[in-house]
Design a protein that fits this description.
This protein is of the alpha/beta class and 299 residues long. It is 40% helix and 25% strand. The protein is globular and about 60 Å long.
Length: 299
Amino acid sequence: METMENWLQKANVLNEALPYIQRFHGKTIVVKYGGSAMVDHELKKNVIRDVALLKLVGFRPIIVHGGGKEITRWVNKVGLETQFVNGLRVTDKATMEVAEMVLNRVNKGLVSMMEKVGVKAVGISGKDGSLLRVDKKLSGGKDIGYVGEVKQVNTELLNTLLDSGFVPVICPVGSDDEYHSFNVNADDAACAIATAVGAAKLAFLTDIEGVYRDPLDKSSLISELTIPEAEELLASGNVGGGMLPKIQNCIDAIKAGVSRVHILDGRIEHCLLLEFFTNRGVGTAIIGDEEERYYETNA
């Protein structure tokens, strides 16, 4: 049986969330959805419920999702070979067909989950409405097939959906000037879309807790970083692997006008709500120089 103390705790949580709801009411936010939160069913439900709540309290959310693990599973299932160059999947014509099929399947599954919790959603790919126009992307000068670099984002369809009360759910497939399909890195797609729509927030759901001053010291998690601090961290050599391009993406997005970028551990239940609505978030926020800090960093 719940006590009055439990009820007061819940009231305090709602009260703590109020200034954040007021500040970002009516603002567009982009959530890049990937990692374990996409394959664990309970985590998936929590993410969808979090985005639904953000929508219902007045945010304008856009979801950009990946699907790399599922693509790999299906590529292997149909007998194709999976190859990577500098961390990027080599995507020949057959692999592109599988990737597009899988991403569209994942996309419609997420739309169904969103509809089940009472929020209108529309699943689209970057090909719809010429949302993502791309050029062929090379990796270290090597041709890796149908992998695209976003060169232009057409926001007309997105704005129409947002203004009509829908949550756009986007799979990262774009088209070139000849209308060929290209696989686009979901992080890159999310950054390009967040920049184009002037998002107040861009959140990456990952399989790590956030950004560390020292990757070997779990107590060195950094709550907030300004652009100069983030650039200094990159130059220090303490950031490697997949985090390096992710932080660079964050820096580029902030410089292009996105107010805040969050790197969150998608394995934590309701990580979006904890980061957006509490005084002490659960990941790392990278902010513009003019942005007010929410709390002191432990950097």
